[in-house]
Write a structure and sequence with these properties.
binds calcium ion, alpha+beta, binds 1-deoxynojirimycin, eight-stranded antiparallel sheet
Length: 674
Amino acid sequence: MRKPVPVIGAVCLLSALLLSASCSRRGPIRVVSPDGTIVLSFDLVDGVPTYGVDVDGSPFINPSALGMVASEGGPDLAGNFTFSRIGRYSTDEHWTMPWGENKEHYDHCNGAVITLDGKDGVMLRLRFRCYDDGIAFRYEYDAPVKDSIKIMDELTRFNLSQQGTLYSIPASFDTYELLYRTTSISDVPDAQTPATFRTLGGFYGSIHEANLTDFPEMTLRRVDSLSFIAALAPYPDGVKAYVGGHFLSPWRTVQIGRDAPSLVNSSLILNLNDPCKMEDTGWIRPLKYVGVWWGMHLGINSWTEDSRHGATTESAMRYIDFAADNNIDGVLFEGWNKGWETWGSGKSAFDFCLSAGDFDMEKVTRYAKERNVQYIIHYETGGNIPNFERQLDTALRWATAHGIHALKTGYAGGINDGYNHHGQYMVRHYRRVVRKCAEYGLMLDVHEPIKATGIRRTYPVMMTREGARGMEWNAWSEGNPPEHQTILPFTRLLGGPMDYTPGTFDILYKGIVGNPDLKVWNGRPSTECRVNTTLAKQIADWVVLYSPMQMASDLIENYDHPAFQFFRDYDADIDSSRMLQGEIGDYVVVERRAGEKFFLGAVTDENARTLTQSLDFLPEGPFTATIYADGPDADWLTNPTSYTITKRTVTRDDTLSLVLAAGGGQAVTFIPEK
Ligand code: NOJ
Ligand code: CA
């Protein structure tokens, strides 16, 4: 078994220069990226700490204030600081993940720890890091308090120095399942992170956070034309966070690139998380899965135990057989347990160890084992955290006793007692579940999660999560527009993998027309909905939208289709990846390697386009390329299911012409010819 994550380079923490204290220090302190192109400057202005960022000698972030605000009577965390000392260090470390879109990472930065003395014994250490592809900083406060400090606000500003285009969703403290807006930077009142922008000068940036462990999430509120301030998700009483006298904030991050793909081809967020804390990660394996799932979203099945119940023993056996026969590792069963009739009542009361009457857990898990298929257990909480936490240990122990090592959780519904989904109460809960999964041995896929900030490095059981509008929205709403998948990789997915669940082949839901059992369960009837892509783009999404648990989302009946061969051949255990070309909201081309196989995915927005792509990412030797493309007459709106499959021999000297229909895509497998 693979034991602790091996470090293949040496950590080079050169805390060498500890400059002596100087309270009268004047002028900014600079931290420069290893390649010299990015300069982070720190200064104290009238006792208030500030930072700014220059790229290639020009301002990128103008001087911006830093600080926090405690409740009345609490310590002054916002000002009255004097400079005490600075320690500088560098990192130069190669490290690996047991899985990931890239298993190897390089952490190379220059850092500084600036210590400031505040009023009444307050001390603030500002930890800055400057990478070649961005900057980060975090707060470490010490305050002499007896009990906890109530954090009422964070004062971090991001004063952008140039106008540009912003790609963002609104800042909601309760959901990320919102449509992306493409606006001027100065045209939004607020934004969720990752908030990605392209400046008029042609630079790319993305504001986010890393290592969100025990704090509310940070969103952005615009306070001036190009200026944002951190806005933390509150508790119901308005307090943002309860912290001790010594506390560390998450990292505040700004990725910086000269082109859009460089935001994606970056390890910055993972580098800012703690190394793996698990001793044994050898059992954690990326997987492909199908599931008793889409039928419920379409309204032909139900989660509850009625005549339309989806998760029956009979359907489970069929899905297990399908997985086993099609080189698919796992099956998800939603609605297998008791309590679904309470979902949405405001007092969900799921039982996490009790099967529905028509679902024979013993038989299903035994059969899954026999056929070497992983059972992915589903725990919808409905937002009732006390109910889930009360059962958590028992449920996880019970699941693993049944040979189950993968769990999908859900938090669809208002959280108990008025808590926000993204506040500190929930951040703590989500983290507790991650730790428990690490302890009991379950891989985790979270729906309605907290945003991804790189925790998977520390706990590699944290495989994937939703946290954006996924496939389900196509079943019961106007759906995700064709540009959606060309924005996600540059925004939501900068935080980490997403369980988007691509792969719906019955694009127009022809298979359910006239079904007398169809029910409208969440918005509009699914017969009035559709998937807003071509078929080839659904296949390409399996490559473009990285998830170490990658689902083929459709009803298995719809996979009696030649193009499903792509999913049979796909390997979710990716070794390395690269975005080859892309523009936010326009198009994306990605290549991924798994062992000796390579996969390419290309998607476009509502515009047809032809992209020229060199194959020089392949090693020497001929490969059989199987190309799943849009048919010549394909168009997401008028003819979405037209496709072609062609095979040819290629080498790294070849170039592919990727002809993408409007709302279309293309996927290619490259298998070495022996
Ligand atoms: C919302 C999740 O995103 C979806 O995947 C799941 O089917 C439902 N909640 C029910 O748990
Ligand atoms: Ca959801």
